[in-house]
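Notebook entry, structure prediction.
Reason for the run: the old model in the group folder had no record of what sequence produced it. Starting over properly, with the input documented here first.
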Amino acid sequence: MTAGVHHHIRKPHWLKRQLPQGPEFEQIRGLLRQKKLHTVCQEARCPNMWECFSCKTATFLIMGAHCSRNCRFCAVEHGIPEPLDPDEPRRVAEAVRQMGLRYVVITSVTRDDLSDGGASQFAAVIQALRNGADNARIEVLIPDFQGCRHALKTVLDAAPDVLNHNIETVARLYPVARPQADYRQSLTLLRRVADHANDIDVKSGLMVGLGETEPELMQTFADLRDAGCRILTIGQYLQPSRSHLPVASFIPPEIFEKWREIGLNMGFAEVASAPFVRSSYQARHLYEAVDRCLCPSSRADSDTRS
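New structure, fully documented this time:
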């Protein structure tokens, strides 16, 4: 893997794909517009947006579309965040019910302007989903809450099925890619989740192609396992615009598959590793694969609802 940063690298053939379209895509986009809801699919320019919308799934982005941080890899807009909308939890639950989802991913912009980092809004959305979303499984992808234990406990007490917090990259690249975050703080958050309750699956993800080395990547895998992470996602970093960090290298699919096998051998319950993998891509599949592995009978009722 190349350690240096190179500009204007031509995309290889495995990163070229046909965009699925159709009435399902337009239906989901129209519903989100009607409910005045954001998705990370749209705000972060996810390469899987067309596929996921066409399959009637989406990752909801709560607490507005403006992030209080400005990570150099992320396409979500940086700026002054909007006031919290107390009606947002109800609208998310309504959208989930109308979409007929059985697995929901909720994430947010980072809200360092709020005393609890927005933890109470996460809890309110989880509660609204529990009350009106027909027993959908709930995954939350949370920011670091600046290391606040109370904020994390607020989310955990709302009892999501999966708590995801992305480590994003190796420790050495944090000052470049995530200057307002802290590698050890993110690991501590994951460890606290694992220590809090055995029935909440701990998940994390990272992107590659930013200039990390393979030994650094293996150390990150080991750090995540030591912190209690059980589900891991690995995907190719793609530069959202010329103002973002450039791609240092494009990783071939066979290397991603090798990393998946390494991760499983290190003790992760499930690993999704491929160029187009993102933290919430095929999230339901990963969750159910892990749950069936641990307790085959525990998913019987959920599988009949699918």
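Summary: Residues 13-305 form a domain with the TIM Barrel fold (CATH 3.20.20.70).
The old model has been moved to the deprecated folder.
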